[in-house]
Amino acid sequence: MAAITKSAEAYVNELIVWFFERKKSFEANKKLFEEEKAEFNSTMERYFDALSDENGEYVLSVKGRMKNTKVKAIKVKKVCPTRISFDIPKFKSMIDKVSRKRLISKSYKVTNWPGLLQLLKDSGVDFKEFLKYVEVTEDVRTDVLENMISKGELDESVVRECTSITMLPQYYRLSEK
After folding, report:
1. How far are the Cα atoms of 56, 61, 100, 147 from residue 141, in angstroms, in the given order?
2. Kind of pairing, strands 104-110 and 134-140?
3. pLDDT per position as a tens digit, 143-155
């Protein structure tokens, strides 16, 4: 370990104390912010629908109400995110092979490079043997799915049978108007 001067050591010591204090302050502010955010969301849940317009937005004029800013209005929008999950094996069993190839995308991830390289060196490899070294992820191409439904190439009831919709926690997005 290299020797350092007393002044360098004193500087580093002060830097450590300063950073530790900043870290503690940040953690306290973050905790306070999260508590205030929860209170804000709770209040908004109670009153937002009565205040919002037909687009689910509320615009608040803040001209002259906020210091050190040029913001004239704040737009608040309620966001209700969802997650759509597909039962891909069930979905695949309910559609024809041509549609499967169009709708289901596969991505492969090699999980054992040394084993794969050795296998390829030995050549004459069976595809099923190759797949032992690969992780396959299947996803539904939602843009293709929507297109096929709109063209009548796929019945929407088949899709409904193979999907589940999860409501995620709602939140409010605030932006300048």
Report:
1. 29, 42, 10, 10
2. antiparallel
3. 999 999 999 999 9
